[in-house]
Amino acid sequence: MVHHPPVPARLPVPAGLGRLLVLTTVFVCAACGLVYELELVALASYLIGDSVTQASVVLSVMVFAMGVGSLLAKRLRDRAAVGFAAVEAGLALTGGLSAMALYACFAWYGQARPALVGFSLAIGVLIGAEVPLLMTLIQRIRRQDAGGAVADLFAADYVGALVGGLAFPFLLLPVLGQLTGALLTGAVNAVAGGALVLWLFRGDLSARARWVLVTANALVLVLLAVCSALTGPFERAARNAVYGADVRVAVQSEVQEVVLTGGGADGHPLSLFLDGRLRVSGDDEYRYHEALVHPAMAGPHRDVLVLGGGDGLAVRELLRYPDVGSVTVVELDSAVLRLARTDAGLVALNRGAYRDPRVRVVAADAFEWLRAPRGAAEGPYDVVISDLPDPGVTPSAKLYSQEFYGLVTRVLAPGGRLAVHGGDLDVRPRTFWTVDATVRSVGLRTAPYEVRAPTARDERRPGWGFLLAARSPVRLRLPDARPYLPSLTPEKLGEEAHEAALRRETGLLPSTLMHPRYAQ
Prior knowledge:
By secondary structure, the protein is α/β, with parallel strands linked by helices. Helices cover 55% and strands 13% of the residues. The protein folds into two domains: 15-235, Up-down Bundle (Growth Hormone, Chain: A); 282-502, Rossmann fold (3-Layer(aba) Sandwich), CATH 3.40.50.150. It has helices spanning 15-48, 51-73, 80-109, 113-141, 146-200, 207-229, 231-243, 285-293, 313-318, 334-342, 344-350, 366-371, 373-377, 402-411, 429-440, 490-502, and strands spanning 247-252, 257-261, 271-274, 277-281, 303-308, 326-331, 359-363, 381-387, 412-423, 445-451, 464-470. The chain starts with 14 loop residues before the first helix and ends in an 18-residue tail after the last helix. The relative contact order is 0.09. It comes from Streptomyces triculaminicus. Its EC number is 2.5.1.16. Pathway: Amine and polyamine biosynthesis; spermidine biosynthesis; spermidine from putrescine: step 1/1.
């Protein structure tokens, strides 16, 4: 195809103002494009996990697709105005609906990764097609050297990307949420692209092309508006598909989505989900918390520190010892703490742990609190309970790092003990033994053990792996004066510890902030 030099456009405004309007549109479209990209990364991390992998997939696929889109756009340069309007309408529709479509695939089909790759590819192609078309349009307003035009275009593009990148976490996500934020971004994208072509470059359009573009943009806006009006029912239906029909509480905190099911008058056991992952099941949570807490209580335990555990269930077990003098809970998510204090089902499960005057709560990131002078000055603690999310989830990697356990040792009393939930020893043994290597790398001795929960058919299923650590050799046992423990006996603990020790993997390197060794 032979490409002819751009013909000067017939504009309804002076050339300088027209050029400013084009650069303003570049700014808006760049902001929208980055919002789509961040939306895909955020939602994929929530639905699939391991944010490093999901971000890498989205970014690499999208950048590749942008190159493809730039090549394809060469064929549209002779009809740059129509081509740009069509690209923006397609981008507004695809980007605006991407979050809803991704969530639907996860909720009803249980698999979101193919949709993630597909939308990353489609959005990348459309974003890549923008630049060659905009270059042609800006040259049609006023011819200038290619270097100057590229500099102006990319300056507006990069500033728009900055605004979009800041607007997503600080405005769109907390105020509108993922679905409505994406839909509104799509509407802004459609209006910006359509208005530029239908008004500024209307002299380039035939009557038929003008009618087609008006209709297409109107349909896109109507569809986005309808979807925006239906986000409430859609979220409820999708949430029911994921969690079941007995969702009682769904809160999007600044940290994560918190969902409670059951635990009400219907008699269904309570379940707590954080970012779509089951963290507490009322059926068997006592097995986990008994195993996490009570082996660490075999020794002095007057002052106890709980890292995480905002649901209050580990605190419940600690308060069963009358000689515990103080329990300090450091929990990042204030929404979880609020529910643990106010939700009737969760309060019944934790037995009103936060009403006990011995309990003090600090709403803070455990790593930052331990690192700060105030946190380091507190203690020492006879027992530290690390009740944190699985180490394989990327945001939690720093809470299972050598640096983190080094900070823990600063507040651990001489003869004190650290209990760590290290993940599933059966499903991900390498991750568990990496936690073990990391704890030992700061000078602590460890004793591994595992607790399983039987299924309804009395079959064994993968359970929870734990580490008990101290500066001196660890003797894994239960306190002599202990409360009744329905799932944990000295004999059972000894059997699980022996079995875990036989499966030890050696030669693993510790995980650090600079070299995290956990994988989802």
